[in-house]
Write a structure and sequence with these properties.
The protein is mainly alpha-helical. It has five helices and no strands.
């Protein structure tokens, strides 16, 4: 990892956009939840899936509507640090997974 000088760091801070990070976090939260949902569904066919949006909202002690707004990134309802930490614990994922850039998969047939 290269170290930045003061001007480079100042430039990074001047160009900081919170929404960019919130969009990444929320879209990855949805992606991770859906992956967990399918994984659980394939191995526990008869049990209630704890990774449905409804179940996750109950486990986080927030309304289903609020949770769905988080997953779709509603600027008026940004995710709090406390809620993000609860999601990390619930999904058992490292925080870095929530900052990953979306990758586009192209299938050629």
């Amino acid at each position: 990892m290269a170290l930045n000088d003061m001007n480079e760091l100042k430039n990074k801070m001047d160009n900081f956009n919170l929404s960019t990070y919130q969009i990444k976090i929320c879209s990855n939260m949805k992606k991770i939840r859906k992956e967990l949902y399918l994984k659980y569904k394939n191995s526990n066919k008869n049990d209630k899936n704890p990774y449905s949006a409804q179940s996750v909202s109950e486990l986080l002690n927030i309304s289903y509507e609020y949770y769905k707004r988080l997953e779709s990134f509603d600027k008026t309802k940004p995710i709090s640090l406390k809620l993000l930490i609860k999601v990390l614990i619930l999904f058992d994922k490292p925080i870095a997974d929530f900052f990953k850039q979306k990758t586009l998969t192209v299938t050629i047939s």
